[in-house]
Amino acid sequence: MLIVPDRANFIGLFTIYFFYCGLFLLNRRIFAYTLFFISLFPLLYYPVSLHYSDLNSGVVAAFFETNVGESFAFLKNFSLEDFYFPIFYVICLYFTLRLAYAQPKPQDDTPKEVKNRKILTGILIFGGIVGSIALPIKYYFQHKNDPLDVQTLAPAWSLTYSNNNILRFYANLVDSTENYYADKKALEEAQNIKDPWVITSVKPKYQNYVLIIGESARRDYHHVFGFPLDDTPFLDKTNGYFNSAYISAAPATYHSLIKTLYQERIEKGHLNYAYNIITLAKAAGFETIWMSNQGAIGRFDTVASRLGAMSNQKYFTHKGGYNTENISDLKLLPYFKNALKQQNKDSKPRLFIFHLMGSHPDFCSRLDSDKEKIFNFKNKNLSCYVDTIHLTDHFIKQVVDLLKAQHQSYSLIYFSDHGLANSYSADAVADVDNLATVSLPNYASLTASQQKDSSMTHNGKFKQDYQVPFIKLSSDDTAHTMVHVPRSAHHFIQGFAEWLGISTPDLDQNYHFWSDIPDKNIEVFNLEKNVPYDTLLNDPYPGEKITTSTEKVMAKNK
């Protein structure tokens, strides 16, 4: 059905056609009512889908959590053109129903013709039903034994996998509503989680700690790590610790952050969410402040927003999912400025955490104005991506300036949750299991049209999906130190504890995150299973000479 935002494939169209034809032959009144009511919700949602996304729990949350004033502001986003197709669809629906009733009913059919029509009706309806549930059944048997963290996001059985986009829409509506209430309950319960950590000593070196979690930022797109365009002017000249070999745990936000910000402690078959960076900091006596420009509730948001709910203070720019509205990361700065000025009574060390939208696709929508569109790199999409890196550099500068204005000691860590892959490289490895047989295209070999349309996307088969910036800036730094120490994000919580000066027997006392000893045999989660990082393909940015990270750092330091 065209009014459903999520398009049906070829099989889905025939499935819907068979089902409707069967209903028409069975009973025209049932056909008419079914067609009308099935069209109702997709018709109402269609204009929304043009500006936001397919239906998900984040969108449902935005609907339930929005007040009257925000609703009027929301309606101002729509233009008359957004309603052209729904109006056209209503007109077509009206004439379809009129024609259905105008069609004369068979009067003088023989018993054989009546029997044949009943058989045909049964075949059509049965075919429509089977075609609608065949893919969910197939998916169930293929994925029922998937790892727990995969099934958390994509349960093995769901009608949202149906070829029938109408059924998929309504299944998604039901699932999204259920997920919204489940997520909301999880956030409410998170506020009551007790700190389970055993703390033996706390020796913080600084008064203010800041953790900035970036989004979708590849390390090789940063000038400070060797990118040819000057998109990190602040980081280039700032003293601090820069690691050019930090490896993300996974190529997507949910899986990356759950393996980075939580201790991977499985109890009774489930992750114990109580062991995380917020409960660790609070157990050690830190005041925690969470500031997020990503979603508060949504299929991919709750793993981070749960940490916000546990914090002493929290601020979310989005009431629903991350994709319900485009808001600049810079909007977080006024809240941070006010929070900095609020001195806690007990003079506790403070931990401020930012969760940015950063370089999340769609890149151009991350930029608040044309003034932020500075660079010209290959095409519009990639130029905007470079601009988002520059904007994050500017954001870090603003945070540091506000910290300096407090005249208190501080330390700041910035890393990105994961990287991205070139879209043309991702297309080349789609549905390919043996990566050794793949020959990746070069940007220069693409047609002019392909070059214009090329962008970056989530993937899991390239090293650059996991190569992210890792930076620490402190008030007492005296040099710009670039190191190349392979370090896995799986161990970040160890480094986090060391950074805050926390000792606990719940973490490995023999592991030292900030040492020069590299992590060996690093594995990453490719959204299906853990794989050796070294076995992944190389996916350089367009025009880059294929060199190792070590060679690039050595060249830059000459």
From TrEMBL:
InterPro entries listed in its UniProt record: Alkaline_phosphatase_core_sf, PEA_transf_C, PEA_transferase, Sulfatase_N
Domain Sulfatase N-terminal: 207-502
Gene Ontology BP annotations: lipopolysaccharide core region biosynthetic process
SUPFAM superfamilies: Alkaline phosphatase-like
Database matches in Pfam families: Sulfatase (PF00884)
Keywords linked to the UniProt accession: Cell membrane, Membrane, Transferase, Transmembrane, Transmembrane helix
Keyword Transferase set for record: yes
Chief location bin: membrane
Protein name, as recorded: Sulfatase
Gene from which this protein is expressed: ybiP_2
